[in-house]
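Q: Got a minute? One more chain.
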Amino acid sequence: MRKNLVIFFVVCLSSLAMGQATDLSQPATKQDVMLMFQEMRFEEQMKGIQQSVAQQFQGMANQVMQRTDVKNLTPEKQKKFQDFMEEEMRNSMNVYPVSEMIGDFAPVYAKHLTKADVKGITDFYHSPAGKKLLDISPGVSQEAMAIIGPKMQERMMNSMEEMQQRAREIFEDPDTGTSHPQFKN
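A: Always. Here it is, folded:
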């Protein structure tokens, strides 16, 4: 009788333990993903991306300042224009805070990941290779941006010039040959 009672308690405790074990095939929750993001240093990565965008914007702003129409402005107006661009860049960095972005990312990731996926990703970032990737990522990103950034800036400036030229052509009055005032050179 005593043996049966012990077996009964072992079975009951095992059942309780099994019931409390996480079913890794279940969809991940927002909380699971937020914990995964912490392991991935996701906020740090997002802030790094934001910094890279700011640097690209600064490079484009410098190119704009070299344009003839800007150089023809008085020094006072050039300074005012430069201050305006810098203020707009700072403001644009605060329009959508990184913490809010991460909060918005989490449910999207949760929709596509299971608890097992999150565990696997987290386990990877706990591994030596995962830790190394996290440690070198900011520097690698900076190095890559030093290569990619100038190319993107140049191509964006060319694209903007082409777009302005096409807009001038659209708004040009064929009868008088004049452009809409907004698109004059």
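A: Residues 16-20 have pLDDT under 50 and may be disordered.
Q: Perfect, thanks.
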